Amino acid sequence: MDLISRIPTGPIRDKWDRHRFELKLVNPANKRKYTILVVGSGLAGGSAAATLSELGYNVKCFCFQDSPRRAHSIAAQGGINAAKNYPNDGDSIWRLFYDTVKGGDFRAREANVYRLAQISVNIIDQCVAQGVPFAREYGGLLANRSFGGAQVSRTFYARGQTGQQLLLGAYQALEKEIAKGGVTMFPRTEMLDVIVIGGQARGIVVRDMVTGKVSSHLGDAVVLGTGGYGNVFYLSTNAKGSNATAIWRAHKRGALFGNPCYTQIHPTCIPVSGEYQSKLTLMSESLRNDGRVWVPKKKGDHRAPNEITENERDYFLERKYPSFGNLAPRDIASRAAKEVCDEGRGVGPGGLGVYLDFADAIKRLGEARIRERYGNLFEMYQRITDENPYKIPMRIYPAVHYTMGGLWVDYNLMSTIPGLFVIGEANFSDHGANRLGASALMQGLADGYFILPYTIGDYLATSRFDRVDAGHAEVGQVERAVDQRVRTLLSINGKRTVDSFHRELGKLMWDKCGMARRAEGLREAIQRIPLLREEFWRDVNVPGSDAELNQALEKAGRVADFLELGELMCRDALHREESCGGHFREEHQTEDGEAKRDDEHFAYVAAWEWRGDGQEPCLHKEPLAFENVKLAMRSYK
Amino acid sequence: MPTLNLKLRIWRQPGPTAAGRFVEYDARDISPDASFLEMLDVVNDRLMQQGQPPIAFDHDCREGICGSCGMMINGVAHGPERGTATCQLHMRRFRDGEVIVIEPWRARAFPVIKDLVVDRSAFDRIIQAGGFISVNTGGAQDANAIPIPKGDVDRAMDAAQCIGCGACVAACPNGSASLFTAAKITHLGLLPQGRPERERRALGMVAQMDVEGFGGCTLFGECQEACPKLIGIEAISRMNRDYLRALLTVRPTANGGGGD
Lengths: 637, 260
Description:
The structure holds two protein chains of two kinds.
Chain A: H1 15-22, H2 28-31, E1 35-39, H3 43-55, E2 58-62, E3 80-81, H4 93-103, H5 110-129, E4 155-156, H6 162-180, E5 183-186, E6 189-197, E7 200-208, E8 214-218, E9 221-224, H7 245-252, E10 257-258, E11 263-269, E12 292-296, E13 313-314, H8 316-320, H9 330-342, E14 354-357, H10 359-365, H11 367-385, E15 394-403, E16 406-407, E17 420-422, H12 440-462, H13 473-491, H14 498-513, H15 519-539, H16 551-575, H17 599-602, E18 604-609, E19 618-623
Parallel strand pairs in A: 1-2, 1-9, 2-5, 9-17
Antiparallel strand pairs in A: 3-4, 6-7, 7-8, 10-16, 10-18, 11-15, 12-13, 12-14, 14-15, 18-19
Helix pairs in contact in A: 3-6, 3-12, 4-5, 5-12, 10-11, 14-15, 14-16, 15-16
Chain B: E1 4-12, E2 21-30, H1 36-49, E3 72-73, E4 76-77, E5 99-103, E6 112-114, E7 117-118, H2 121-128, H3 150-160, H4 167-171, H5 178-189, H6 198-212, H7 222-226, H8 234-249
Parallel strand pairs in B: 1-5
Antiparallel strand pairs in B: 1-2, 3-4, 3-5, 6-7
């Protein structure tokens, strides 16, 4: 299979503008003849569904929650980047492009990243027009703050709830279109398979999560905006329902999976407090604008933090990376935290934690200013830990947060299945091997508002669509396969709960394929995961029936998919004999413990093809060319 | 830290039309650091190990922002902690041996689907009736073209924080959705971008509230006490003012050629 990226030729600054002109259009009067199925209603899916409907297409949108407003984009805290340069501190489209390519450790497609930076300015305009209440200065203009991996203040925010406000903007636009009749919404509906007819994605099979009924929906294109797969680790900052099922089933139908091992571990999350822990709570990166990260200099120093004097403290991020300090990018900050904890200098119960201290900021700015900037985050922290971060430093530890990997897409955001588009975190896209803070929100909205609506038009205008209906053989086949799988899960009646398998997989993935990986551990995981998977299909117990709301059944299907995806992630991590961004191989590091890339052999996107149960997947490579940003050792010192 | 042993009385209802009842469960060895939903996870885990159907409840983000979770805990929407959603409530708020009664949101407009899961789609339909700004994607002017007073934006943000959980409805003796509706009306009405549709929005959303079967507001104020985002009832005053002004000033739009 040839991976055709469809990157336009010509100077990078002009690629997207020229491409938009060259893309074929669908006549306004013809748009209503097309039906587009959008799965997922978050920033990417919601904005796409709304925009496509505004353009005149018939849209059906699906989400598994009870309302499109529950998508996990809602939880994003810190902010959204854009190259507006309002603060006049040296930002530009070029600089945002450069920072993102560098931040991705030179493993992203330059053209995609440039386009993202270019579109970022339109996103902010659109959000303000929708009534998103971004923070403003007293003069009435928009406020900015800085985020990791950047030396300019380019992040727009709404307190510590930027994701919520951006999602509500898209959700409100979506509801406006539902009211007009352009979008039909299907909440509490889970997509379980893709229908491919004549080599084109023509529909999806879904399960109604209230009645259990399995049915299909047909259309002319399918769009997946279904988020990331961080929950393969069981504990992550994702929502409990976040899952990889939609992209995984599409993968098994022919959509190649790009860079599955590029997972992001966020440095500042609230540490685990017990066995019953169900998820990890993010403390926004924006806190690192004002908080200072430290651990005691001496190993085994268990004194209360306020008893440890200044020169007994190791502000390790400031020490190791003087020019970025506490705003070092996530992968670097996470590894640094792990390093000091592995040395025995961690704080809190279990020694897995570092301090994020606001004492200096409070002294400098006053508690009121800190409360204004981060109020809700401080409250969130206090509720969970019962500690007051205005008085004693926050305890934080790295946690799985985001996945840069996802289904492979070309410049038009189309996967290797014609007519199957993938947007937002679900695609492998623009962040390379490490995503910078405040850029996920940017990418989701760029894809949904400003890229997909154009590129999908080109696909529709240049493709031939045979009439398909529910009677088509392929439709029946896929529906029956989905139904069969559901029945199988319910009939096993084993002894272990779904969660027990999920926890075991999560721990294995965290230990062997987490922040630091090595060949030996990855091989062990590749051996053990299939055994765990077999045990799952032999011994899982899913109570209840399929003809009702059955949360255990929902979870079972998702965990079954994680048990396959986890193996692919380990294979990808094993084959990539280098360290880059969030993928850190202990065997490939510099003398001072930084990631050591091998640009000569690994400057490519690893796109994996599913070959069937029990078969090893097949690797395809998309070479990456860096014509505009010089390949360099990524340094934040 | 000593663990807690609690007695739970939980509403079980197998389906929308089935009869429901309270069932008693023991929650043993619960860590005070566990969250309320993690406590229910533990109870469910034990139920499933015994081959019993687990208690169904909506939840997702587990960090108080998505609005999925919500239950009456000892008769209080989201439980005893002010400004806290159910998923953010931690077991250290309860005493060893305490009895905890757990019920779904109770309102005619929120029919029960199963156990603690209710249908809140009425909220989406209220938003469809005007809780948006009618602007299509693309062509927006520069974001800084219209300065907005910081105070207005801050107040808009206070109202915009609504997570759509429905606690306000559940806490209200009339089952009114006024705080939810008013929060959105306030958020959008405070911003210049929301002004052109301010009257139309109030008329549409208030009318939809009535269609859905929510009760009217008689200013009990229970809603603001239950709201996990501490939205205050001054939003309802604003909604009422907008609605009244709309009744007095809105004229039916003339029919004409071109445009929608």
